[in-house]
């Protein structure tokens, strides 16, 4: 399945947001790169094996690639949705595995977790792109 007209708002909104986030990470200072790496390594310990700037470069490239795939009309919606689902799953893993991000129930966001909790919307959009089927 290619690009359906009903997918355009979903892909434009998420693609522009993620692309912009990635472009903003292309020139991070060492402190910000180390902070992002530290946050990610709580959920994904393997991340600590990279240098902070190397991780920041990888993160920026990943976001730019995913954002661009969502914006490119020649990329099928299911494929773009799969990339978005992988990205949002990583962000939600960070959210759920960092105790400071949620309230005592482990689900509702704490004030510190609101920024990552919004990635649940990205997961929902990804699933909509993946599961949408044409009627025959």
Give the number of helices.
6
**How would you state the average pLDDT, rounded?**
92
Q: C-alpha Rg, in Å?
A: 16 Å
Largest sheet, strands/sense/barrel: none
> Based on CA inertia axes, which overall geometry fits?
globular
Total strand segments: 0
Give the % helix.
Answer: 55-70%
The structural domain count equals 1
- The sequence of SSEs as H and E is HHHHHH
End-to-end distance? 13 Å
Class based on secondary structure composition and strand pairing: mainly alpha
Low-confidence stretches: none
Instruction: Report the portion of residues in β strands.
Output: under 5%
Protein described:
Helices cover 65% and strands 0% of the residues. By secondary structure, it is mostly helical. It has one domain. The chain is globular and about 45 Å long. The two termini are 13 Å apart. The mean pLDDT is 92.
Show the helix and strand layout:
Elements: H1 8-24, H2 30-43, H3 52-71, H4 77-97, H5 114-117, H6 119-131
What key attributes describe this structure?
6 helices, mainly alpha, 136 residues
Put the structure in a nutshell.
This protein has six helices and no strands. With 136 residues, it is an all-alpha fold.
